[in-house]
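job 3f2a | input accepted
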Amino acid sequence: MNGASAHAGELADREEAARRPFIARPSRADAFAALAESLRRHEAADRVIEVREARARLRDWLRTLEVAVPEQREAAAMVRHVLALCPRDPDRPGRRYAQMLRGALERLESHRVAAAVYTCGREGGDLRPVHAGLERVARVHGGSVCWYHHDYALADLQLERRPGWQRVARLIQQRHIGLLAVPCADELIPVDSPVAAHPSYARQVCEEWAVRHRLRLVCLTDSGPLAGPVP
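job 3f2a | predicted structure (231 res):
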């Protein structure tokens, strides 16, 4: 009886399996094709981000060249030419286009301008993370930081009375730097100044002063999050 029951059960299982729809397993070639397509989509998405960030860096660098070193006309003309070239489909830029932008940024490395950072903070504050952020912002905008100056707890004094700023002013006057990186423009405005109550106007005043001195002013508050390391 037991043997007959087992045989009948086996037959029932076979009949049930036969009634089920047949599901074909994908072949190895199909699996590789699906993987390749997925990789292409990820590569295309990464390239869109790379192109957007590279064009932003080129625009920032062009502004620095125009303000700080207008005599470098060939470098500025090269950047304008590259920026004038746009991919046919901004949502799907090609590999060659991305390579062209990378090449332009590499050629600009020899045109970096000397930069300084200036901070005015509280006594005993750790300046290392601030300096690291300012270095990155300066590099994104075409600068290479060579000098670090700061004042402690002197935000209520006029700039010309701050010892750290006096050293920065000498660098500017002697044309040793073409870019100045600060945490924010407010640090260049005394807290009791009427301008301090209007941050946007304060930044405009600082920008106009910087341009008159052939100086590119960049602020940590302008940069936003930086994606990946800046070479």
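job 3f2a | The chain has two domains: 28-109, 112-223.
job 3f2a | closed
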